[in-house]
């Protein structure tokens, strides 16, 4: 018996990294998966490569290896119609229930706030904040209609709990999803749907390996103090973040809602 037997989970940004690990682990625990990813460049200022369609295909293969069903579709979280279409298709293939949402899709890049272009700002906020709202907006009515309760987990960041230099747009978006999470937790509580946010530090993904921030640190060495953590390990593995997600989406975390869970190597303590 798995922790999530018979449940359906919707994961955004599922082609690789944290999203893939979340999807595969939930499948291993018995859930069928709805996986979406844009699998294309969305932010010209990013210092790391975008996912490609083959990445999403690999996620689907790994889920199917767990003997679970998956509906994997290309969709941009900035596009409500695409999210609705993916969930409608999933309902026809997997059934009408939707128990879990992991709003994981996000982008990250760097600049001092007055040097961020209008396009750079808007893209990060549109993906990281408005994309989470669109994801939850698409999913919540389906979860309510299914009548099974459920759990929504939003991927925020250490930058959602403390400010980081050269990332005003990212920090604003990640702080924003905390407010969205708390409001959603209040509004969905009567339907037995819990809503929480997780707050990773550096994670061993393409985004986490981005070195395009280094010129900012070299030019402004005082920024370095903001990027420390307490534990010796400087970056988590995707499985570490998935462990937190599994606690929140399963009955192990059934009393937890409206919470901000740091999985951050102690970074928010400093």
UniProtKB/TrEMBL annotation:
Entry GO MF terms: oxidoreductase activity
SUPFAM superfamilies: NAD(P)-binding Rossmann-fold domains
Matching NCBIfam families: PRK12826.1-3, SDR_subfam_1
Organism from which the protein derives: Pseudonocardia sediminis
Protein origin, superkingdom: Bacteria
PROSITE patterns according to UniProt: ADH_SHORT
Keywords: NAD, Oxidoreductase
One Pfam family here: adh_short_C2
Family note: Belongs to the short-chain dehydrogenases/reductases (SDR) family.
Protein name, UniProt field: SDR family mycofactocin-dependent oxidoreductase
Presence of keyword NAD: yes
């Amino acid at each position: 018996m798995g922790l999530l037997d018979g449940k359906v989970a919707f994961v955004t940004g599922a082609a690789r990294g944290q999203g893939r690990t979340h999807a595969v682990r939930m499948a291993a625990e018995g859930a069928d998966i709805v996986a979406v990813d844009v699998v294309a460049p969305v932010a010209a200022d990013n210092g790391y490569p975008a996912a490609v369609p083959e990445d999403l295909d690999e996620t689907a293969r790994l889920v199917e290896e767990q003997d679970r069903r998956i509906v994997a579709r290309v969709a941009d979280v900035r596009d409500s119609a695409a999210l609705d279409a993916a969930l409608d298709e999933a309902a026809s293939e997997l059934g009408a229930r939707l128990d879990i949402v992991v709003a994981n899709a996000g982008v990250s890049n760097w600049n001092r706030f007055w040097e961020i272009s209008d396009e750079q700002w808007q893209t990060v906020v549109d993906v990281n904040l408005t994309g989470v709202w669109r994801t939850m907006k698409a999913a919540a009515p389906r979860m309510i209609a299914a009548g099974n309760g459920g759990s929504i987990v939003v991927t925020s960041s250490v930058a959602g709990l403390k400010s980081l230099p050269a990332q005003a747009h990212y920090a604003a978006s990640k702080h924003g999803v905390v407010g969205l999470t708390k409001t959603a937790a209040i509004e969905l509580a009567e339907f037995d749907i819990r809503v929480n946010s997780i707050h990773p530090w550096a994670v061993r993904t393409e985004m986490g390996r981005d070195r395009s921030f280094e010129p900012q640190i070299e030019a402004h060495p005082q920024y370095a103090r903001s990027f420390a953590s307490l534990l010796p390990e400087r970056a988590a593995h995707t499985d570490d973040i998935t462990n937190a997600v599994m606690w929140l989406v399963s009955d192990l975390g059934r009393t937890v809602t409206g919470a901000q869970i740091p999985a951050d190597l102690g970074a928010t303590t400093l």
